[in-house]
Specification:
Mean pLDDT: 92
Helix content: 55-70%
Number of strands: 4
Order of helices and strands: HHHEHHHEHHEHHEHH
Oligomer: single chain
Low-confidence stretches: 1-5
Length: 189
């Protein structure tokens, strides 16, 4: 986009973003350019109209190469979208990238991963959520009985209180045992 578009972020807002994210001023400005590049015409028109609260729709956000082919792009966008629509303001976009950066602590990443994988948004990961998770990871190419077997094994191994669901604490415990989680739960633009 160019340096003039960085004027859409005030110095005060840049300071706030630095305090609220894991990014430097320079990284925030680079991320803003990536956000603006999702739809440069929308940004230009908004800027000319004096509208600095630009919101990219879900289809625009998912053009980001790091999301484009993710089987979880709809959930990622929904979880990080303030209104849960999947549409994102720059603040939503920056929050998403901050949580999914290498600098974010593992427990924060785990909390958001839990929300992403809680497909029915009921505050726990149950058999239905795990079915959806396995199917998305495998591209919906497995037989139902094979998916059921994997889900049974996950619950057997991870459901500490044996109630048929994973709580946020159980989920975080699983991820603490997965050293590659932080590196894999990552988006860099």
């Amino acid at each position: 986009m160019g340096n003039s578009d960085s004027a859409l972020i005030s110095e005060k807002q840049l300071e706030i973003y630095q305090l609220e994210t894991f990014f430097t001023r320079k990284e925030i400005l680079r991320i803003y350019e990536s956000f603006a590049d999702l739809n440069p015409d929308k940004v230009r028109e908004a800027f000319l109209a004096g509208n600095y609260q630009i919101k990219m729709d879900y289809g625009e956000v998912t053009q980001l190469s790091e999301l484009k082919f993710s089987p979880f792009k709809d959930r990622i966008c929904r979880v990080f979208s303030e209104d849960l629509s999947g549409d994102m303001t720059f603040s939503d976009f920056l929050d998403m990238l901050s949580v999914m950066s290498m600098q974010a602590p593992k427990d924060l990443k785990a909390a958001y991963a839990f929300k992403i994988y809680d497909f029915n948004d009921d505050g726990e990961i149950d058999r239905t959520d795990l079915d959806e998770l396995v199917n998305r990871v495998t591209g919906f190419r497995m037989k139902t009985e094979d998916v059921d077997g994997i889900v049974d094994e996950i619950l057997k191994e991870c459901d500490m209180d044996e109630n048929g669901t994973l709580t946020p604490a159980e989920f975080e415990d699983i991820l603490q045992k997965a050293p590659e989680f932080s590196a894999n739960f990552n988006i860099e633009v």
